[in-house]
Amino acid sequence: MADIDTGGGGGKHKGGKVRSKKASTRVDMTPMVDLGFLLITFFILASTLSKPSSMTLNVPDKTEKVETEPIKASKVMTIFLGKENQIHYIFGKAANEDPELKTVQYGPEIRDALQENKRKIGEKDFVVVIKPTKESTYKNLVDMLDEMAITKTKRYALVDQLTPDEEKLIADKMK
């Protein structure tokens, strides 16, 4: 609040001139200090509460070679991340066995496909292979990893190269 001091400063004196009263202004800074401390408190609390969250990704050790048994193609769902947020997938067959290539979008469509195929095989034996194509984006890969977390798919692998049979299969689908 601004206070106006009206004391002193003139008036009618004996034989003197008539002067107007001079008002001195004084700004009370107490509310401003209170507001400053409230803002500092708010930002300190808000910054400690909003910690960045990240997805944990378990990656095998490169130095350690572990022998595993081959996985049957009938238990594998291969997902190809395509352009314009499209997902192509095959299930139960390799690319050279003339499989049915299905195309879906992110969200409920791919989630339903993952859940359905997981039910067919069983959660323990179900494996997903994620293969990004050259046309896919980094966001597509992160979205697919989110889908793995949402559907609680425990066994999945990221493969960075497509085989010639897989490239031909996708190219034929796009024609």
Main sheet specs? 5 strands, mixed
What is the helix fraction of residues, given as a range? 25-40%
Side by side, the strands of the main sheet go 5-4-3-6-7
Q: What form results from the Cα inertia axes? A: elongated
Following the backbone from N to C, one meets helices and strands in this order, namely EEHEEEHEHEH
The end-to-end span amounts to 74 Å
Strand content: 15-25%
Would you identify the regions where 5 or more consecutive residues have pLDDT less than 50?
Answer: none
Number of helices: 4
Structural class: alpha/beta
Features:
33% helix, 7 strands, alpha/beta, 175 residues
Plain-language structure description:
It is a single chain. The protein has helices spanning 30-49, 108-121, 138-150, 164-174; strands at 2-5, 24-27, 76-81, 86-91, 102-105, 127-132, 156-158. Helix content is 33%, strand content 19%.
Helix and strand arrangement:
Layout: E1 2-5, E2 24-27, H1 30-49, E3 76-81, E4 86-91, E5 102-105, H2 108-121, E6 127-132, H3 138-150, E7 156-158, H4 164-174
Parallel strand pairs: 3-6, 6-7
Antiparallel strand pairs: 1-2, 3-4, 4-5
